[in-house]
Design goal:
With 112 residues, the chain is α+β, with helices and mostly antiparallel strands. Helices cover 40% and strands 25% of the residues. The protein has a three-stranded antiparallel β-sheet with strand order 1-2-3, with helices on one face. The radius of gyration is 19 Å and the shape is elongated.
Length: 112
């Protein structure tokens, strides 16, 4: 388990960076359209009583309106190219950020 002096700033910096890339947003009607949660840590208690960090996870999602399949072949909904590409880009950026900041927790180096 990382020392508290390293763990707390790491959590704060990580959540700040990930929420900047994948924020929770609401649409015009006040309905949630994108969500990003908090970091979740899974800790295991070893036989000797020490705690070990098993994993840290971060969940995020985005609602994307997909085109409907109409009975009328002349009727068509727009394809969400822009929304899908934007979400894929932000997931890629968040994954890279996650990888980069995880190094600081694993190696014990201070970045924050």
């Amino acid at each position: 388990m990382p020392k508290m002096a390293r763990w707390q700033p790491w959590i704060s910096e990580t959540i700040s960076q990930l929420h900047a890339i994948l924020p929770t947003l609401y649409d015009e009607e006040g309905l949630i359209c994108t969500f990003s949660g908090d970091l979740q840590a899974t800790v295991k208690c070893q036989d000797n009583g020490r705690l070990s960090l098993e994993k840290v996870t971060f969940e995020a999602w985005q609602a994307i309106v997909l085109p409907r399949q109409w009975d009328d072949p002349q009727k068509e909904d727009p394809y969400p190219d822009k929304a899908l590409l934007d979400f894929a880009y932000r997931i890629s950026k968040a994954t890279t950020t996650w990888e980069n900041i995880l190094v600081y927790l694993v190696n014990g180096k201070t970045r924050v």
